[in-house]
């Protein structure tokens, strides 16, 4: 009987772990409602975002809801803080908006960019 309970606990732990984001070397910091995405969904959203960063690394990802993710990076030439809004339509992730802000922030100023432009979908 104890073996059965232990087996069920191990199975439950494996299922819970399989559904969450598994950090890898070089991954950005993930915050927000990260429990809403599987690792595969996170990787797909990250791949869609990386098409818009001009080779700059994404340093932060915020999961807003199961169908919306925000990715943060610095623009390579201007050093502006940029945010990509990535949306899932069906099974595909696409960038729906690109926003950028000033390159110099006060220490207590939030990372939210102040100006933006509409992005294109993939």
In short:
Helix content is 24%, strand content 34%. The protein is of the alpha+beta class and 122 residues long.
Features:
122 residues, alpha+beta, six-stranded mixed beta sheet, 2 helices, 6 strands, 24% helix, 34% strand, globular, disordered C terminus
Please render the helix and strand layout as text.
Elements: H1 2-18, E1 29-32, H2 39-50, E2 58-65, E3 68-74, E4 81-89, E5 92-100, E6 115-118
Give a verbal description of the structure.
With 122 residues, the chain is of the alpha+beta class. The chain has one domain (2-118). The chain has two helices and six strands. It has a six-stranded mixed sheet. The longest helix is centred in the N-terminal third of the chain and has 17 residues, at 2-18.
Strand order of the largest sheet: 1-2-3-4-5-6
- Indicate the radius of gyration in whole angstroms: 18 Å
The major pleated sheet works out as: 6 strands, mixed
- Please write the string of helix (H) and strand (E) elements: HEHEEEEE
Total strand segments: 6
Tally of separate domains: 1
Classify the beta-strand content into a percent band. 25-35%
């Amino acid at each position: 009987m104890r073996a059965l309970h232990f087996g069920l606990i191990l199975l439950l732990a494996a299922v819970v772990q399989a559904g969450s984001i598994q950090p890898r070397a070089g991954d950005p910091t993930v915050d927000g409602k990260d429990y809403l995405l599987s690792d595969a969904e996170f990787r797909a959203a990250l791949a869609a975002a990386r098409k818009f960063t001009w080779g700059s690394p994404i340093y932060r990802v915020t999961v807003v809801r199961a169908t919306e993710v925000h990715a943060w990076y610095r623009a390579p030439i201007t050093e502006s803080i940029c945010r990509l809004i990535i949306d899932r339509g069906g099974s595909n992730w696409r960038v729906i908006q690109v926003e950028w802000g000033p390159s110099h922030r006060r220490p207590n100023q939030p990372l939210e960019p102040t100006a933006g432009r509409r992005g294109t979908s993939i």
